[in-house]
Design a protein that fits this description.
- The structure holds 2 protein chains of 2 kinds.
- Chain A is built from 13 helices and 8 strands.
- By secondary structure, chain B is α/β, with parallel strands linked by helices.
- In chain B, a hairpin with an 8-residue loop joins β13 and β14.
- Chain B starts with a strand and ends with a helix.
- Classes of the chains: A alpha/beta, B alpha/beta.
- Chains A and B meet through loops of A and β24 of B.
Chain lengths: 280, 667
């Protein structure tokens, strides 16, 4: 079977290992991930603060291209991209005038019929139902599933999981053989927007997250967002100096963790690319 | 031939400033059937009314049109004047020259022309008016009070003390309501049970009050003065006449671990139980859902130990029908439980409790005998945090309103904590302190200034547990939204006060309206706070909106006075503006064809089917008939009737068409 695939910028750059692991897991289940041709930036973090039409036109173009390519369901692994695409679909479905403006700007037909799946929805729909018998190396670790801000909010639009205490990733990890811990920072801010400009703030915000995961005995933090991963992983020095100790809990994408459980090659999952060594 | 009098009022200058009143009167005088017309400065004054009365007597008027203000203002005045002069009051009509004309238009000829048209319409209408008589309905002088909390208790006692009978029903095994659960009461800190329990006993002993606990309203029919209520008396599984309340059964019952409703789950009770030691009536009921006998078919320990043989395992619910003239609804409220709050742990932390649970901890009759001990391990909390507005004033939670009582009870809780736990630290997170009420603000200041409670203005974003402490993470908005974290031992949520479970169904049973939050709706927010839109049904206490004790009691007394006022009359009179189905001479009998669309349309169940029989008693036609006691004159059936067989008295088809034709100058 074939699913559409919108990698977005992170998965082609700083989070290549996310793309690698998504594609590796998909391949293991004979799912063909067809990348959307000529895709563009989703506009995340900048566009919606600058210009509403622009912030909707960019994701709308992606959705239009997917339609043109005959894709009915697309997987958007990045939480920020997922948020922008879903918000756009929601806004355009409610405002016909806005839809006209955006369609004309893009010069592409837009029906809004493409379904958008985040990575958890994709795993839930196409991987876990067939997981039985495929787990060769159960991910037998205590894990802290970290959802971040964009995966479950705003609930009115995404209608995905519980916004204050989400569970979907925990359920998936349980099926992969892990023991998800009950912890307090599932949806706290990692400081994503300040990653470059105020690293010390990231150290404090992400430090609380890593600190709580450590205190509750997590052996790995599981994420589904490139921004979360890079902050919790790449900014570990700032985090450790906030915590005043060296914490070496690795931060894995959920597809990496599931890939390990499936017995996939560590390199194919991009585990060597992490800053904090993945020892699990 | 009609002899109609037209009386044009200047209303000081209210009408005459823009309308040429003399011209209106003069023009009216030229209409067919008008025998007399005049204008006058104040028609509602004594001399003005005398003009009308004299004209009726001297000219032998058969109809009156008063062209003045809105009928809402003075229709009763002028109808009474007509009646005093011997004319049927329903032969008097009003043309509204003030609100419908002079107040809304400039002074010019068109305005006067409109005033003339308005008078013309009513002159033609009144030609088709018929004498009508007020409807008399008898009054059953017994009141039904639903709910045995403080509001229901107060209403019952007040009505009973006027000499009328009261039936009080309560769905729990004891009366007392939430007030019986409270420790001390603000702003005086007097013990809640000490002031309440004497009232409960008074209810039980009052010769005019019949008390049914463990009972609920099953259905309600009828109308003001004449309700028929069916009451479900749930089976208590004991014979109340034989039971002496000795307590042997509750002591020996082997099922001892059921969370006690009275203690808000903080204490345990048995399967056969009395909710609390001061309960009225002080006789147990068997909770069949938890009783071993009903689950497994054996046990019967209570039956064995009962010295009077009062246990009745095979007792069934009884449906009892009572006739009452008025109803006071005092069913109270409930509070949101912590599982409503994901950010505060979905209720998974034992030491995050509701305000009502804290009341039980602070109460001398509670599970800790009044010592503040946290539920998880029984330790005395050294640091306690109170959260105001947990749910309230939060549109995202669907509760945009203020629950009103929380600011005060939180101050009380913090104060009680400081009095009982010396050296303890208490914090209150609040949005605003709403302490409107006699000695309320002073009370809150006392908590802050004398008892050292730390008030932090800001909200709490989340509560989580860490190393045995509850981390309360919030912001202090008086310090530029500075993040605040408090490591607390216990957290009390002032969870929103919401309508009782089943409030909606109850309202529908009684045909009273309710607001979007399922609180029962008063007839007017200012001037009719205890009435509902259904005549004869009144409200008291927190079933109408969150209320504190003084307000609930005041409302209950207000409702009681309304009931007493109703019962001071032997008969009620109602305006005869009701629907009637026409009746004609045989062989037609009525133009009604018996489709009974009107029956399904009527919101008051006022239309019945009537058999028309011949002299031999054989049914020859089935037609609709309006019960004048139930009909509220809304006119829905008139619009539904396919054969135009139904008319509203005083507003018949004939009269309406006549008005329209008059407006088109077809006469």
């Amino acid at each position: 079977m074939t699913l559409g695939f919108y990698p977005g910028c992170s998965l082609k750059g700083s989070s290549r290992e996310y793309a690698e692991s998504v594609l590796a897991v998909a391949k293991a289940f004979d799912i063909n991930m067809e990348e959307i041709n000529d895709w563009n930036c989703c506009g995340a973090t900048a566009a919606h603060n600058m210009n509403k039409e622009l912030s909707l036109a960019l994701p709308a173009r992606i959705l239009s291209l997917a339609e043109k390519q005959g894709l009915t369901e697309i997987v958007v692994p990045c939480a920020a991209c997922y948020s922008r695409l879903t918000v756009t679909k929601y806004e355009l479905s409610k405002d016909a005038a806005l839809k006209t403006v955006v369609t004309e700007a893009n010069g592409l037909e837009y029906t809004g019929l493409v379904s958008i799946l985040n990575i958890i929805q994709m795993l839930d729909k196409y991987i876990t139902p067939n997981l039985e018998g495929r787990v060769v190396k159960p991910f037998d670790h205590k894990v802290a599933c970290y959802y971040g801000c964009l995966l479950v909010r705003p609930h009115e639009i995404l209608k995905f999981d519980r916004e204050e205490d989400p569970q979907s990733m925990d359920v998936l990890m349980l099926k992969a053989g892990a023991t998800p811990i009950d912890w307090a920072f599932k949806t706290e801010c990692c400081g994503a927007g300040l990653s470059v400009s105020r690293t010390s703030s990231v150290g404090r915000l992400s430090g609380k997250i890593i600190g709580d995961a450590k205190d509750r005995g997590a052996e790995a933090v599981i994420v589904a967002c490139p921004m979360c991963q890079s902050n919790l992983d790449m900014r570990r020095d700032a985090i450790n100096s906030y915590l005043g100790e060296k914490v070496d809990i690795p931060v894995l994408y959920i597809t990496q963790a599931i890939g390990l459980a499936l017995g996939l090659d560590r390199k194919a999952l991009g585990l060597q690319r992490h800053f904090v060594k993945v020892s699990v | 031939m009609s002899k109609i009098g037209v009386f044009v009022c200047h209303c000081g200058e209210n009408i005459s400033a823009t309308v040429d009143c003399a011209k209106v009167a003069e023009t009216a005088g030229t209409y067919d059937g008008v025998a007399f017309s005049v204008d006058y400065k104040y028609m509602c004054s004594d001399p003005g009314q005398n003009i009308i009365k004299n004209a009726i007597k001297e000219k032998g008027l058969t109809g009156v049109v008063v062209a003045s203000c809105s009928p809402r203002m003075h229709e009763p005045t002028f109808r009474k004047a007509c009646a005093e002069a011997g004319l049927n009051p329903f032969m008097c009509e009003m043309a509204n020259l003030r609100e419908h004309c002079s107040w809304v238009h400039e002074k010019n000829e068109a305005t006067t022309e409109k005033a003339i048209d308005l008078v013309r319409i009513l002159v033609e209408k009144v030609k088709y008016n018929h004498s009508l008589n007020e409807i008399k309905v008898p009054v059953t002088k017994t009141a039904l009070v639903i709910g045995g909390g403080i509001a229901g208790i107060q209403a019952s006692l007040d009505i009973a003390n006027t000499g009328h009978k009261v039936i009080l029903i309560e769905r729990d095994p004891s009366i007392g309501g939430h007030m019986s659960q409270l420790s001390e009461t603000f702003p005086t800190l007097d013990c809640s049970q000490c002031i309440l329990t004497p009232r409960m006993v008074e209810v039980a002993q009052h010769p005019n009050i019949t008390l049914y606990t463990y009972a609920e309203l099953e259905s309600l029919e009828g109308f003001i003065g004449n309700f028929k209520a069916k009451i479900r008396r749930k089976s208590k599984s004991i014979d109340e006449k034989l039971c002496t309340g000795c307590g042997q059964c509750t002591t020996k019952c082997p099922v001892k671990k059921i969370p006690s409703e009275f203690n808000e789950g903080l204490g345990k009770r048995t399967a056969i139980y009395v909710p609390f030691p001061q309960a009225v009536p002080n006789k147990p009921v068997i909770d069949r859902g938890n009783c071993t006998y009903y689950i497994k078919g054996k046990c019967k320990v209570c039956e064995i130990v009962c010295p009077t043989g009062a246990i009745r395992f095979d007792q069934e619910d009884q449906i009892m029908e009572v006739e009452v003239g008025a109803i006071v609804v005092a069913t109270g409220f409930t509070v949101k439980q912590p599982d409503f709050f994901p950010e505060y742990g979905y209720g998974k932390y034992a030491d995050v409790i509701t305000g009502l649970q804290f009341e039980r901890l602070a109460s001398a009759s509670g599970p800790t005998l009044g010592e503040i001990r946290r539920p998880s391990d029984g330790k005395i909390p050294e640091k306690i945090v109170f959260l105001a507005c947990a749910g309230s004033r939060d549109p995202a939670k669907g509760i945009p309103y203020c629950s009103k009582i929380c600011c005060m009870y939180i101050a009380k809780h913090a104060m009680l904590y400081q009095h009982k736990v010396h050296g303890g630290k208490s914090y209150v997170f609040y949005m605003d302190i709403r302490a409107g009420g006699k000695q309320y603000e002073e009370f809150v200041r006392r908590a802050i200034e004398d008892d050292g409670v730390n008030y932090i203005r800001g909200r709490v974003s989340k509560i989580y547990e860490k190393n045995g402490k509850l981390i309360v993470s919030g912001a202090d908005t008086l310090l530029n939204a500075m993040p605040v974290e408090i490591e607390a031992d216990m957290v009390v949520l002032a969870t929103a006060g919401v309508a009782n479970e089943g409030a909606e169904e109850l309202a529908q049973k009684m045909h009273i309206s309710y607001d979007p939050y399922k609180f029962f709706a008063e007839a007017h927010p200012k001037l009719k706070p205890v009435e509902t839109n259904t005549a004869g049904i009144f409200l008291a206490g927190a079933c109408q909106a969150p209320r504190d004790i003084p307000e609930s009691v005041a409302m209950a007394s207000g409702a009681a006075v309304k009931v007493a006022g109703l019962f001071s009359q032997d008969e009620l009179t109602r305006e005869p503006i009701i629907a009637v189905v026409n009746r004609q001479a045989p062989p037609v009998y009525s133009s009604c064809v018996g489709c009974f669309l009107c029956v399904s349309a009527c919101p008051y169940q006022a239309i019945e089917k009537e058999e028309i029989k011949n002299r031999n008693g054989e049914v020859i036609k089935l037609v609709a008939k309006v019960n004048p006691g139930l009909c509220q004159g809304c006119g829905t059936c008139v619009a539904f009737c396919r054969t135009k067989s139904i008319d509203i008295q005083g507003y018949t088809h004939e009269q309406m068409y006549t008005e329209v034709m008059a407006l088109l100058n077809e006469y």
